[in-house]
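Title: Prediction job returns without error message
Component: structure pipeline
Severity: low
Priority: P3
Assignee: unassigned

Description:
Job completed but the reporter wants confirmation the result is attached to the right record. Sequence as submitted:
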Amino acid sequence: MDVAAAPAEFDPWSPAFVADPYPVYARLREAGRVHWFARSNQYLVPHHADVSALLRDRRLGRTYLHRFTHEEFGRTPPPAAHEPFTTLNDHGLLDLEPPDHTRLRRLVSKAFTPRTVARLEPVVRRIAAELVDGLIENGGGDLLRDVAEPLPVAVIAEMLGIPAADRPLLRPWSADICGMYELRPGEDTAARAVRASVEFSAYLRELIAARRAAPGDDLVSALIAAHDGESRLTEQEMVSTCVLLLNAGHEATVNSTAGGWRTLFRHPEQLALLRARPDLLPTAVEELMRYDTPLQLFERWVLDDIEIDGVRIPRGAEVALLFGSANRDPAVFADPDALDLARADNPHLSLGAGLHYCLGAPLARLELRTSFAELLTRAPTLRLAEEPEWAGGFVIRGLRSLKVEL
């Protein structure tokens, strides 16, 4: 069966589409289960059942290099000039497949246990309270810059044992590296990512050397100590893991926080309900992640031929799993375009599924619940000061700022 082309309205480089992709997603779902998007050479998959199944399907992978060379897979190797970024990216959990992913995740999990997250709870509460205090004292401000962004960065930095004086370096490095995860990044984006990769890697190698000489009660020291029989983390794996924990550990949380508050301001009756019923906060956080997904698209390489609805997708192709569309699929979610903070049955895919399910999901949920609780209880008159703008990215989708007042 021939595959249908994606409609022209599917345009990840259009500010109007990025601002509200959901009507286009609805048309994609109605038109079929798979679509060809020529501008990125990808097969788009918009339905929840297919996205969920493919996230668990071992015929797909985040990389193909564990089975094929670039040439065998019909792909061009990345440019030599991108090498610092490529090396950093290729040694992280997100872009590894078994057996390397299995080994690395098992080792990292020993240093990233539920006990670690539980021990961080008072730290998260303290940092969130301090940030909200500052916002209240100023009578408002940019909620993204003043609360949403510094909280997860500070928490991850605390986990890694990065000194407070160095923490302003982290977010710019992360933003420059994450630019490479958008569709068709340009050479300017690549140059920034390469520079950030070099600088961030050098910083972390110095930090690792210092922790080897004088271990502390932090995640870098725990990663150094983590071992599984004769298998230990290499220094490059430690560097890549620390970068991934920072990038993945705050990008989604920042965008879920700011985007979640934008959503609440646009649904005043649901915001009033949440203020009156703080016990709804756990389900509210899940619903806000579902309703406006921070990670809209996740890519997979096709390692062995697959078929979706009669369409053969060959080895060497790439599929784009549309999380934002899956999370609005009426086959799974009742009244999917409505915000329902009490929604109990909520199998959203915002944190992934399968072996690449978000390792930091418990920490992300803790940070979101804590920051929302602090703002809901201590800033009950918080309101939008001006209509926010989207930053422009589609894969990692977030606001440029969120100006609020009390």
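Comment from assignee: result matches the submitted record. The domain at 4-405 is CATH 1.10.630.10 (Cytochrome p450).
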